[in-house]
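Hey, resending since the last one bounced:
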Amino acid sequence: MRRAWMLLGLGLIGCPGPDPNPPPPATPSWQLVQVDLPGALLRVWGTSPQDVYAVGADADGQGPMVLHYDGQRWSRLSTGTTGGLWWIDQVGPDDLRMVGEGGQVLRYRPSTGAFEPRASGVDVTLFGAWGASSNDVWYVGGRPGQPGVALRDDGTTIRAAGTSSTVPTLFKVHGTAADRLTFVGQQGTILDWNGSRFEDRSVSSPQPLLTVHGVAPDALYAVGGFGTGEIFRYDGATWSNETPPELPGMNGVYATGRDEAYAAGFNGRIFRRQAGVWSELAEALPTYLDLHSVWVDSAGGIWAAGGQLSADPPTDGVLIYYGPPIAHGL
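The structure tokens again:
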């Protein structure tokens, strides 16, 4: 018995205790997560910091860029299709929708890794998608100089939604409920869907509005522009112009609250709204390439995707991230 206690004592002496000088927690910083990809990345989005997707152009003959991050590593997914993808969004627990060139609509099921092409009935580029459920999904797009396209997918068939023939190309759609949707497009176009009909709430601007997002029907943000940018905010009654001075063209917007949002655009620039004021992030971003979308994860990490957007197809994909260190490259 005495020998056993001695051995146990020796074992306890040999066990390492808590590190008296543990390493400090990783300091959040801007990181160049992906760079020099064949195709530009046009949308970054995820369900959590450990489940992130980025989709983009088809520039290397291997199909559209579709990347996934599982919290440990990045991988490129093969869709089995051709043509760039412009948007991705979740419409059900195991149902992601991706849309892009040539009227391309893909349903992706993460549980199986399977891509399912869906017949949209159009051959124009679809730039945006949003769904209240797997049986109620909207897709929007168009072609310069022609009427915009709004399609509705009931899970079985995709049909035209009946917008006016005078509506120009639509770039994005976002909803806060099945009967509270907002569409944005060329020439300051803003349309609301109230569950039964469209209402025109367009703003006076010759510039395109490229993305809309918000957390409530009376707290929406829309951004756009080319050489110079524009930012508008909706309070439930009026779209107000909140464009700060010398704003470059803005391509993406993401609201994190009623009064806080991020906007990303040309030359790798990101602006943040706080206390009713838009100001550029003071930190030096690790790219000067154009950013096409921005997303903020549940832990506060900021993601932005883009590339050489003036190329056809867009090239030089880039993905930047602000947060603790994560895996880089493929």
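Confidence is low (pLDDT under 50) at residues 1-18.

Sorry for the duplicate.
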